[in-house]
């Protein structure tokens, strides 16, 4: 089910006056190092099987025992279907792709000391125009089960599944006022010029949020993130990064991680 923006805004505004401040990992700031360490029970909401690690690996590694809930991790009823993306990643069917991608996700998160949780919503490439289901209700059950103290949510950049994940999760904000909420920039989609700035401006206009910049640094282990990222071999192939290895250093688009606290 697509989340209605007006419903989200009404709920969020009723909960509190929002203040959004960006955390930028990878950019030194002497004032408050490791600002996102020790966040308690961290739950990272990931649209797809790789988004959380590509975008939040430093954050996840800094909070051992974190849970990464991937929304669109389901296998279509016709598991024999083969999409162009899956073929480009080396798979012959959706069933083969999702089985392999879940294993990649498990290995990647193990490098970071985190645990996976896979929801059964279908990736847009498998939906054939059908709705994604009641994503908000599914996420509400996850929040109820894990009772996180901090939740990291994608900004909702560049892809309909990211958009759905963003609005579905934040529609629950008013119901969980005791939870600390972070927004994160999706690493791959965030490289599009002005997409982040435009999304932040839209969020500010839609929600009435007052944006107050705040930079924070933390200890970074690029080699550790590199090993985790390399676990997604199929997706790196699809992204044209099959020849990349952690020994050559993280690509520029993956070195910094960008966060905003709500």
Descriptive keywords:
262 residues, 8-stranded mixed sheet, 8 strands
How is this structure best described in words?
With 262 residues, the protein is α/β, with parallel strands linked by helices. The protein has one domain: LmbE-like (Rossmann fold), CATH 3.40.50. It contains 11 helices and 8 strands. The protein has helices spanning 5-15, 51-61, 84-88, 94-111, 124-127, 135-146, 160-170, 195-207, 222-230, 233-238, 252-255, and strands at residues 19-25, 42-46, 67-70, 115-118, 150-154, 180-184, 210-211, 257-261. An 8-stranded mixed beta sheet has the order 4-3-2-5-6-8-1-7, with helices on both faces. Helix 2 (51-61) packs antiparallel against helix 9. The radius of gyration is 18 Å and the shape is globular.
Q: Let me know the number of strands.
A: 8
- The coarse overall form would be globular
How is the CATH topology named? Rossmann fold
Radius of gyration: 18 Å
**H and E order:** HEEHEHHEHHEHEHEHHHE
Instruction: Note poorly predicted spans.
Output: 1-21, 25-32
CATH superfamily placement: LmbE-like
Which CATH class applies here?
A: Alpha Beta
Main β-sheet, in a few words?
8 strands, mixed
Helical stretch count? Answer: 11
Strand content range: 5-15%
Q: Which whole number gives the mean pLDDT?
A: 84
């Amino acid at each position: 089910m697509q989340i209605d923006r007006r419903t989200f805004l009404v709920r969020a505004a009723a909960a509190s006056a929002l203040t959004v401040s960006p955390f930028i990992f990878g950019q030194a700031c002497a004032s408050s190092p490791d600002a996102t360490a020790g966040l308690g029970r961290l739950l990272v909401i990931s649209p797809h099987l790789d988004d959380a690690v590509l975008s939040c690996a430093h954050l996840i590694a800094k909070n051992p025992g974190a849970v990464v809930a991937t929304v669109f991790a389901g296998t279509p009823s016709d598991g024999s279907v083969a999409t162009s993306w899956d073929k480009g990643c080396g798979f012959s069917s959706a069933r083969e792709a999702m089985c392999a991608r879940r294993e990649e996700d498990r290995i990647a998160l193990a490098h970071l000391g985190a645990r996976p949780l896979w929801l059964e919503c279908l990736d847009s490439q498998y939906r054939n125009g059908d709705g994604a289901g009641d994503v908000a209700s599914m996420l509400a059950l996850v929040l109820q089960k894990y009772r996180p103290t901090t939740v990291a949510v994608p900004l909702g950049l560049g892809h309909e599944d990211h958009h759905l994940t963003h609005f579905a999760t934040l529609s629950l904000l008013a119901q969980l006022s005791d939870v600390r909420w972070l927004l994160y920039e999706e690493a791959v989609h965030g490289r599009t010029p002005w997409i982040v700035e435009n999304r932040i401006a839209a969020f500010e206009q839609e929600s009435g949020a007052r944006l107050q910049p705040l930079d924070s640094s933390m200890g970074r282990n690029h080699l550790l993130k590199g090993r985790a990222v390399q676990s997604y071999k199929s997706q790196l192939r699809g992204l044209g990064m099959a020849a990349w290895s952690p020994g050559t250093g993280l690509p520029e688009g993956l070195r910094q991680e960008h966060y905003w606290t709500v």
